[in-house]
């Protein structure tokens, strides 16, 4: 039996949501009164029924089970890449990049790429989620393309950024290795939509599919994230196991027993009190990019101008990324003394994977010596506690999610919890949390500007927009 299949181990790895500091009892009058949560029970129950009824359409909820079927194939491809290449480059953007970045940062050595090959668990990894020409050109300076595998990921199979990257790197590969370029490229895309599937079929590329009904930002637990994780030696079965464990908790209709629903309900009430900003502040470098992944999930899902009935509501809460303790020395002043327009969510770790002692020295300097004998673990956890205290004392709403440790199981739990939290918040707001018309508008305008066929009307619309006036530029 693998460790994550053991029930006792699973319970010991359960992540916890502590929302004491959202309540009036802890933050005072700006907080949420416990009866405020209880009084809205009909609202929570209706939203729970709504989410359960729509489960059939939320195919991402089944990924912990459906993706088990392709784990072997993913592991075989990962083994092929690990055996034949020194570097693995992911080409993708948004939901096709942020998950791989977050999971790799959480579960691989924090200096993965800097380690010598013999000590590194897998090839070097670069996730190219931008088209800055300087950045793309600089990649050629640090990789040997003949020893590099690429995973091009685009659900729609047509995103300009990713397709232009594909053109760049396949052209360079052709030059470097000729016909063998196809052995260097894995495609991850929809099985029908877009052009990547056509290119993959025409060239016989290894291909994985983003299942139907799984949107970009909800796709980390399918090949979008799983292949990259497997290439980096991460146990993807444990990751899926953690997500399945959270699915059981997050399917509980009673919000007092469901951490995902409770977190969404608290944010919903807080939004009603004017908290239009949500700060996610992990106290671990391993979780730093989890905040980026979450920011996309929360912003792109909830930022909607119209509700499901078509009424203009301009919904959403602006996600802000922070890192403990680093941002204690930049943003926390605002969080303690600034406006009451935010909810802070601390992301803590009970047991870090390393323990590091602070050495003894300078006994004659009391202000330095007090640190001696402690560990960095104690220091970072005390600073988290101290910041929670300061933020609470100043009356600002905050809550804490704690991972017993950072491993594939708890990361699977966390990803899944945030996804269900987002779906529940969408239900409470009566919006479609799974589309992104604002993003599509920008994509279509880009196609029009670059002369893509079929975008004449959009091109005309763009040229009819008010021209920028020189007088307004100084
Ligand atoms: O969540 C989403 O749908 C988006 O952020 C997409 O992930 C992003 O636009 C990239 O799209 P695609 O994977 O189709 O290239």
Q: What is the third-level CATH name, the topology of the largest domain?
A: Rossmann fold
How many DSSP-defined strands? 12
From the 3D coordinates, which CATH architecture of the largest domain would you assign? 3-Layer(aba) Sandwich
Spatial arrangement of strands, main beta sheet:
1-12-11-7-10
Task: Report a brief summary of the structure.
By secondary structure, the protein is of the alpha/beta class. It is 46% helix and 13% strand.
What does this protein structure show overall?
This protein is α/β, with parallel strands linked by helices and 474 residues long. It has two domains: 245 residues, Rossmann fold; 165 residues, Rossmann fold (3-Layer(aba) Sandwich). 46% of the residues lie in helices and 13% in strands. It is built from 20 helices and twelve strands. A five-stranded mixed sheet has the order 1-12-11-7-10, with helices on both faces. It has a five-stranded parallel sheet with strand order 3-2-4-5-6, with helices on both faces. Strands 8-9 form a two-stranded antiparallel ribbon. It is globular. The protein starts with 6 loop residues before the first helix and ends in a 10-residue tail after the last helix. 43% of the residues are buried.
Q: What are the salient characteristics of this protein?
A:
474 residues; Rossmann fold; single chain; 20 helices; alpha/beta; binds 5-phosphoarabinonic acid
Helix and strand topology:
Elements: H1 7-12, E1 16-18, H2 24-27, H3 34-39, H4 41-53, H5 63-66, H6 71-84, E2 87-91, H7 98-107, E3 124-128, H8 133-142, E4 148-154, H9 160-177, E5 185-189, H10 196-203, E6 206-209, H11 223-231, H12 236-250, H13 259-272, E7 277-282, H14 290-302, E8 304-306, E9 312-315, E10 318-321, H15 332-337, E11 342-349, H16 366-369, H17 376-393, E12 398-403, H18 408-429, H19 437-449, H20 456-464
Parallel strand pairs: 2-3, 2-4, 4-5, 5-6, 7-10, 7-11, 11-12
Antiparallel strand pairs: 1-12, 8-9
The protein binds 5-phosphoarabinonic acid (PA5).
């Amino acid at each position: 039996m693998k460790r994550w299949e053991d029930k006792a181990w699973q319970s010991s790895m359960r992540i916890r949501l502590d929302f004491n500091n959202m309540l009036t009892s802890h933050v005072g009058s700006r907080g949420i009164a416990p009866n405020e949560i209880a009084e809205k029970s009909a609202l929570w129950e209706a939203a729970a029924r709504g989410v359960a009824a729509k489960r059939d359409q939320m195919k991402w909820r089944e990924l912990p089970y459906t993706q088990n079927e392709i784990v072997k194939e993913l592991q075989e491809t990962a083994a092929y890449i690990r055996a034949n290449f020194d570097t693995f480059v992911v080409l993708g953007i948004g939901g096709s990049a942020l998950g791989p970045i977050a999971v790799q940062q959480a579960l691989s050595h924090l200096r993965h790429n800097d380690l010598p090959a013999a000590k590194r668990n897998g090839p070097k990894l670069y996730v190219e989620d931008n088209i800055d020409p300087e950045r793309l050109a600089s990649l050629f300076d640090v990789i040997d393309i003949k020893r590099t595998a690429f995973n091009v990921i685009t659900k729609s199979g047509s995103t300009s950024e990713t397709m232009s990257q594909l053109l760049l790197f396949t052209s360079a590969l052709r030059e470097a290795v000729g016909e063998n370029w196809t052995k260097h490229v894995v495609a991850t895309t929809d099985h029908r939509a877009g052009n990547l599937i056509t290119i993959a079929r025409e060239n016989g590329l290894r291909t994985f599919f983003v299942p139907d009904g799984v949107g970009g930002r909800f796709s980390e637990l399918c090949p979008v994230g799983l292949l990259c994780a497997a290439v980096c030696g991460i146990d993807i079965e444990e990751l899926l196991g953690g997500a399945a464990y959270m699915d059981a908790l997050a399917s509980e209709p009673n919000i007092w027993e469901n951490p995902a629903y409770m977190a969404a309900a608290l944010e919903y009430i807080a939004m009603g009190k004017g908290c239009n900003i949500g700060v996610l502040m992990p106290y671990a470098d391993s979780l730093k990019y989890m905040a980026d992944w979450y920011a996309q999930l929360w912003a792109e899902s909830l930022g909607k101008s119209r509700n499901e009935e078509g009424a203009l509501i301009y919904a959403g809460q602006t996600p802000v990324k922070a890192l403990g303790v680093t941002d204690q020395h930049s943003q926390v002043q605002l969080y303690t003394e600034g406006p009451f327009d935010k909810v802070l969510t601390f992301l803590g770790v009970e047991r870090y994977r390393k323990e590091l002692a602070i050495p003894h020295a300078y006994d004659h300097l009391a202000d330095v010596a007090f640190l001696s004998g402690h560990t960095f673990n104690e220091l970072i956890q005390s600073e988290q506690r101290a910041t929670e205290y300061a933020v609470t004392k100043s009356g600002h709403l905050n809550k804490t999610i704690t991972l017993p440790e950072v491993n594939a199981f708890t990361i699977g739990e966390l990803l899944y919890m945030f996804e269900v939290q987002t779906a529940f918040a969408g239900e409470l707001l009566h919006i479609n949390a799974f589309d992104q018309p604002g993003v599509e508008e920008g994509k279509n305008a880009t196609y029009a500007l670059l002369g893509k066929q079929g975008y004449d009307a959009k091109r005309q619309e763009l040229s009819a927009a008010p021209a920028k006036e020189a007088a307004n530029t100084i």
